[in-house]
């Protein structure tokens, strides 16, 4: 297998401010379970096509978390189709890729169970998870999925991760201030570094 492939998790979700708390929780639980999150946000190269970045991320990751719950219309009356599109690329890699790609495993989130059947019926038959916009529910689903998919015995209980994350959120303003970072504007890479360092303190 490609180095890192079996530890890498592709995160496919909205990047707007309204989803930030959920994205932060997803990133934290991925690290806390011993994996590494990846996203198109981790690269900032104006000469690189966005779709190429996404394809590379998907190719490098055995696991993928896909939240297709963002179906609200924008001010111009259109929904965002990026998440279902990227989920389709992930499924395509699993279906048509080499043996490594065929080992891919996905967690598909929606807000309310079976809502996806009303707007993307081709997914009928897959086992989505409803997060209900609840951070603790998200942490439990991501943890349980990674535990089941990877069969790793080192992954902590969901309650442990939930407690750790709550303590981390409480400490985050102080951590950010020391690092001279703005919580609301820090980059994906900066947040990942902060999470890595915080979890290292727990484990050491």
Number of helices: 6
Number of domains: 1
* Name of the CATH homologous superfamily: Toll/interleukin-1 receptor homology (TIR) domain
**Mean pLDDT value:** 91
Helix content: 40-55%
Number of DSSP E strands? 5
Shape category: globular
* Biggest pleated-sheet summary: 5 strands, parallel
Gyration radius, to the nearest Å?
17 Å
Low-confidence stretches: none
- Classified by CATH, the class is Alpha Beta
Question: What descriptive keywords fit this protein?
Answer:
Rossmann fold
Spell out the blueprint of helices and strands.
Elements: E1 8-12, H1 20-32, E2 36-38, H2 50-60, E3 63-67, H3 82-96, E4 105-110, E5 129-130, H4 135-150, H5 158-178, H6 188-203
Parallel strand pairs: 1-2, 1-3, 3-4, 4-5
Helix pairs in contact: 1-4, 1-6, 2-3, 4-5
Explain what the structure shows.
The structure is a single chain. This protein has about 200 residues and is α/β, with parallel strands linked by helices. The protein has a single domain (about 5-204), classed as Rossmann fold, CATH 3.40.50.10140. The protein is built from 6 helices and 5 strands, in the order βαβαβαββααα. Strand 3 (about 65), helix 3 and strand 4 form a beta-alpha-beta unit. Helix 1 runs parallel beside helix 4 (about 135-150) and helix 2 (about 50-60) packs across helix 3. The longest helix is centred in the last third of the chain and has 21 residues, at about 160-180. The mean pLDDT is about 90.
């Amino acid at each position: 297998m490609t180095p890192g492939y079996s530890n890498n998790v592709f995160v496919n979700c909205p990047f707007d401010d309204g989803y930030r708390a959920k994205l932060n929780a997803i990133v934290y639980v991925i690290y806390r379970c011993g994996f590494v999150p990846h996203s198109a946000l981790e690269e900032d190269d104006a000469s690189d096509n966005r779709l190429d970045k996404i394809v590379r991320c998907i190719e490098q990751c055995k696991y993928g978390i896909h939240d297709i719950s963002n179906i609200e219309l924008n001010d111009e009356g259109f929904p965002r189709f990026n998440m279902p599109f990227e989920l389709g690329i992930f499924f395509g890699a699993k279906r048509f890729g080499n043996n490594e790609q065929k080992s891919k495993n996905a967690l598909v989130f929606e807000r309310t169970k079976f809502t996806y059947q009303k707007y993307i019926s081709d997914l009928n038959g897959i086992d989505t998870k409803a997060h209900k916009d609840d951070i603790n529910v998200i942490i439990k689903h991501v943890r349980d999925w990674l535990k089941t998919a990877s069969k790793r015995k080192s992954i902590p209980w969901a309650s442990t991760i939930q407690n750790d994350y709550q303590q981390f959120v409480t400490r985050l303003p102080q951590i950010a201030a020391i690092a001279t970072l703005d919580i609301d504007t820090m980059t994906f890479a900066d947040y990942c570094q902060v999470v890595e360092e915080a979890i290292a303190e727990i484990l050491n």
